[in-house]
Design brief:
This protein has 466 residues and is mostly helical. The protein is built from 21 helices and no strands.
């Protein structure tokens, strides 16, 4: 490692902040160890797959699990939304990780912990008190997943230069959401197949799938033991807890010293506001019987729609979003990307009114929404990484940005059940309100500040390379 990155922080707040600024620079010296010499393609895809899979297992797939096991829509929306809190609260403990171990150690340890906690979810499902017990183990998985997200993003940002970050941004976002699609598409479809073809009851179907998910997390941990870089150490690495607490205080102070920070936080919070309602109630609408206003799909059909048409559409959208952001710059393309994410919410409004029965048509309409989500999510990720995160405590500030994004999911998910009940459990009215909720994100994207000149940073990096 370079001398600046491995040097302990000096005494006092000024020294800590100055040392923290060194953490923003990628390691340019000859890397130490075989893992650090791995090409990004060896670890970026698997790292972000491992981030997306547990996040969506907890936030979306758990809702389908509980739906199959007879829990009400209102309880599903309320209790599964509370499991977003680890991602909301992760900025509170992210600086406390800095003094201890390496970013690589934290990533791998959390992946093995998630293997154990997801396995525990599987084994409590046959019990009478499965709901509370499974929620508890999902909570453990959530805290482990949120911790993994903190340090995995830290590995990404401190291992690669700004130019490399931009080069792999599309792949990064695609793989995170591909992990989400594996969870909500492949695994859900598998439960439907086991239920229909093998005639297993829902408990045993979900036990098998949760054990499979646990095995995946274990496989990710073993793979990353071989290929994952350590990431640059933080300024307080190797120091005591007191230094970490000082770092925590300084990370909050420096965040709110950034220009236009409140407006940037508002943009990040509202960017996926309408999507939060779609994410929670979209699958429930597709699964609910027609007598309840849903489309009456089974798990197999839902999984195929999300896992085939949804996957292809999302990947295409993500690549197009990355291309547009690179070609036009994020500042010039941000409004377009926000419209691409929010305008396709018309699809669920259409489905709830037209109530089609043709699976191909339903799949095509859902694919439009997934395409827009893939395209628009690139803008969200790049805005957090390039506008809010730069400066002292880059890893912590990015964790704070993603915590605000998780706060959106928690807020929208928590109230979505009440909104659904307030409109008389009428899906057409519910998705009509979602269209109204999708207007503020577009307005805020139009007004979004861009205090960091990333074009100048890239030009400087390019000049230094010659």
């Amino acid at each position: 490692m370079s001398a600046d990155l491995s040097r302990p922080a000096g005494n006092g707040a000024g020294a800590s902040v100055a040392a923290a600024r060194a953490d923003d620079a990628p390691d340019t010296a000859e890397p130490q160890g075989a893992a650090d010499r791995r090409h990004p393609l060896a670890w970026v895809p698997s790292l972000y797959l491992a981030m997306g899979l547990p996040n969506v297992l907890i936030g979306a797939v758990a809702a389908i699990l509980y739906k199959n096991l007879g829990v009400s829509n209102e309880d599903i929306a309320l209790y599964t939304s509370q499991m977003y809190l680890p991602w909301v609260l992760k900025p509170l403990w992210s600086p406390l990780l800095e003094p201890y171990k390496t970013k690589r150690w934290w990533v791998i340890t959390m992946q093995f912990l998630m293997m154990a906690s997801l396995g525990a979810v599987a084994f409590v499902l046959p019990l009478d008190g499965f709901f509370r017990a499974s929620l508890a183990f999902f909570w453990i998985t959530g805290f482990a997943s949120a911790t993994q997200d903190i340090v995995a993003d830290g590995v990404y940002m401190t291992t690669m230069s700004p130019r490399e970050q931009a080069r792999y941004a599309g792949l990064q976002g695609m793989c995170w959401n591909l992990g989400a699609v594996v969870a909500s598409g492949l695994l859900v479809s598998l439960t439907g197949w086991m239920h229909a073809s093998l005639h297993w009851d829902w408990v045993h179907c979900w036990m098998a799938v949760m054990l499979g998910a646990a095995g995946m997390m274990g496989a990710f941990g073993l793979w990353h033991l071989r290929v994952l870089p350590t990431g640059a150490p933080a300024a307080v690495h190797g120091q005591d807890l007191r230094s970490a607490l000082v770092s925590l205080r300084e990370s909050w102070i420096t965040l709110f010293q950034k220009p236009s920070v409140w407006m940037m936080l508002a943009v990040i919070f509202f960017y996926r506001f309408g999507e939060g309602f779609i994410e929670k109630f979209g699958p429930l609408f597709l699964l609910d019987p027609r007598s309840a206003g849903g489309l009456g799909l089974d798990n197999a059909a839902l999984g195929h729609i999300y896992g085939s048409a949804g996957t292809v559409a999302f990947i295409a959208g993500a690549f197009l979003g990355g291309f547009i952001a690179a070609k036009m710059t994020l500042k010039r393309s941000f409004l377009l990307l926000a419209i691409a994410l929010n305008l396709p919410h018309l699809t669920y409004y259409y489905l709830s009114h037209a109530m089609p029965t043709d699976l191909w048509l339903i799949g095509a309409v859902v694919a439009i929404e997934k395409f827009g989500f893939g395209m628009g999510s690139i803008g969200h990720m790049l805005y957090m990484m390039q506008q809010l995160a730069p400066g002292p405590f880059k890893m912590t500030h990015y964790a704070m940005a993603t915590g605000v994004m998780a706060l959106t999911k928690w807020a929208t998910g928590s109230v979505s059940g009440w909104v659904y009940a307030a409109v008389g459990q009428h899906y057409a009215s519910f998705f009509g309100l979602v269209l109204l909720f999708s207007i503020p994100p577009i307005v805020l994207a139009w007004l979004a500040p861009f205090p960091v000149n990333t074009k100048r940073d890239f030009e400087s990096a390019s000049a230094g390379a010659h």
